[in-house]
Amino acid sequence: MAIYNINLDIFNSIKSNQKDNSGLNLLMPIATPAQLLTNSWILPSLEDLLFYAVAEGQETIPAHKFLTALKATGLCTGDPRLKECMDTLKETLKNTSDGVTLDRHLFKKCVQSNIVLLTQAFRKKFVIPDFQSFSSHIDELYESAKNLTEGQVADYIPQLAKFSSDLWGVSLCTVDGQRHSVGDTKEPFCLQSCVKPLKYAVAVHDHGTEHVHSFIGKEPSGLRFNKLFLDEDDKPHNPMVNAGAIVCSSLIKVKSVTLSFTLLNVTWFHCGYGIQCRFQSERESGDRNFAIGYYMKEKKCFPDGTDMTSVLDFYFQLCAIEVTCESASVMAATLANGGICPITGERVLSPEAVRNTLSLMHSCGMYDFSGQFAFHVGLPAKSGVAGGILLVVPNVMGIVCWSPPLDKLGNSVRGIQFCTDLVEHFNFHNYDNLRHFAKKHDPRREGGDQRVKSVINLLFAAYTGDVSALRRFALSSIDMEQRDYDSRTALHVAAAEGHTEVVRFLLEACKVNPEPRDRWGSTPIDEAVQFGHNDVVSILQNHLEKNSTSDGSDTKTQP
Ligand code: GLU
């Protein structure tokens, strides 16, 4: 299907020019009293603006064009926040002559009930403004991990052993509910240990941090996840290892978990024969977990009155819950969004529960690879034996990767590769510097945004003769030859202003091109001549002569 590149400039400029802070119409002609009385002078509504933006000069909009443009913003037609719009669209199209085309009036009718969300989307106000380009990078990372063939599919129960090692899917959901999926993202798989953070979050949400941690520690254990071992206070080390997760299961109620999943609007395959089989298999192969359970019972790790064997059953059932990458990405996004589900707007978990959960995922979420993962990827994550990885980029998005082949430490081979590549490309690592590290991409900003700021800062420093600012820019590996919209460089500006020190710094320390031409064909020497800065003229001339004699050729001149 064709991708329509909607030009939103009209939309943005009309809207921002409409009013200044005093509420007065600035750029539009003032309405006459007669116009006001007859109501013939009306500022375009948000619905009108959206129509103009999508229609691109046409009188009508084919519905698929609107839907394609909507998809490019990251919103899905199935998003519950767009229900009214989609229902009205369906009804409206039934009554049109061709079943496809919407005129302005019909279009407005369809979008009006969700106009705030739609306006945000089309004005690129979501956390990932350029969602299409971001998604295509994700697809590239997905493709490169697809080629990996290492790893073993878990086979301790038949329900896991049946999976093909070719299965591979990645879904993401941002805190604004923008969604993207690639690969086998509709295929159900068991949450297994990926359910541990959710269980813990529900426990803290229901009982508070203090209560939960009177039963469970917060330290990485340094031991295998299913080790029969407690900390020096005879408590499980943390909720991400089996012992801690079993105690967590004793603190929560079936009702709370069900409610959380429902609020998340997550499709989960919890009932019927499927879960019964998986649960039975888990239980039959769960000797180690029984051993842990009995040991913890002896050590009084459970709240008084706990029936340990039913807690274990609940633990096995929770491991056996099936999700898809698509549905689980909403859970991960809820953790990224401080506990509010991005697509329903409902608070599912308290901010305290989410913060605790992310901290523990960060330090203990990836089995015996947790330290390395925190070092290389720097993001909270939890993996499971079915090959799932729940990855959270706090305040930005949740990502779920799934591929059954596991490495020796029990993490999905393709999943780990994807997470590592993700932070190689984007500055999502917790300790990536968002202000100065220019080599990684920041999808939170519009492509041009960062560049424009950097050109302005550079040219302004050249204009004011601030060599120390320019030195800082050069040290942070900013391109010192950047041009503004008139193709003018810092050297043009410094030469025109007669700042000899700046000119010397740019030529000698930064080795910038001494003869760039701006859009009118002027070089820095032309500027210095025009404004009578003879000292600058001689610096530039000497530099050019020196360079042409030293390497025997003229310095390159950019067109
Ligand atoms: N059901 C598995 C167990 O309790 C979960 C394993 C995992 O995903 O880490 O041992």
From TrEMBL:
A Gene Ontology molecular function term of the record: glutaminase activity
Domain annotation Glutaminase EF-hand: ranges: 47-129
Keyword check for Hydrolase: yes
The entry's keywords: ANK repeat, Hydrolase, Repeat
Swiss-Prot/TrEMBL ANK repeat ranges: 486-508
Keyword Hydrolase among record annotations: yes
EC number from the UniProt entry: 3.5.1.2
InterPro entries with a match to the protein in the record: Ankyrin_rpt, Ankyrin_rpt-contain_sf, Beta-lactam/transpept-like, Glutaminase, Glutaminase_EF-hand
Regions annotated as coiled coil: none
Pfam families for this protein: Ank_2, EF-hand_14, Glutaminase
Biological process, per Gene Ontology: glutamate biosynthetic process; L-glutamine catabolic process
Catalytically driven reaction(s): L-glutamine + H2O = L-glutamate + NH4(+)
Family: Belongs to the glutaminase family.
HAMAP family with a match to the protein in the record: Glutaminase
Protein name in the entry: glutaminase
Organism listed in the record: Gouania willdenowi
Gene: glsb
